[in-house]
Amino acid sequence: MKNTKENKNNNGFTLVELIVVLVILAILAAFTIPAMLGFVEDAKGKAAIAEAREIYAAAQTAGTEIGSRWSGTIKDGNEQFKKDAGQKISELVKGDIELSNVVWEINSGNLNKPKESNNIEVGVDYNKFYEPTKDKFKYKESAKVWFDKDSSNSGQFVVKAIWYVDKTGNYRVIIMEDDAKGISTTVEKIK
């Protein structure tokens, strides 16, 4: 008889012990899950920065290649430069980023308007050219690139700024070149 009682007492955990373990796991989850979600959001923002930097590198290449064939100054109204640069950037990032709709204007009338996604638009002279407001620049997987002549009067085209919205449409990355401060990168979540 004594053996039977001992066996009953050694057959696993009591209900109270199981509840205590579940409460401890719930408390750990309450602290851990938000931290993990923060890591995921941070990773998505960094992925958007990496995509914007790829566009920046492609724009530098396009500016060098097209600028070497270009004589004189470029003005905002020079639509052929914008079109050529936009197409070259689109070609260079194809496969990673789909910028298939090159947007430009001819004689201040839209030849092709931005679509809901996949736009590449080129501007000239960031300081004088319009700066898009953040609420208007929100198309998924779209970029706006500004070129200007190098401040050292070398005649080289340089990328002055890039605005990019990632593939999900959740992050906007702004890369700006400043002669005094260098290159800065900003990423923000689109609301």
TrEMBL record:
Record's protein name: Type II secretion system protein
Residue ranges crossing the lipid bilayer per the database entry: 12-37
Gene3D superfamilies: Glycoprotein, Type 4 Pilin
Keyword field contains Transmembrane: yes
Presence of the UniProt keyword Cell wall biogenesis/degradation in the record: no
Keywords assigned: Membrane, Transmembrane, Transmembrane helix
One Pfam family in the UniProt entry: N_methyl
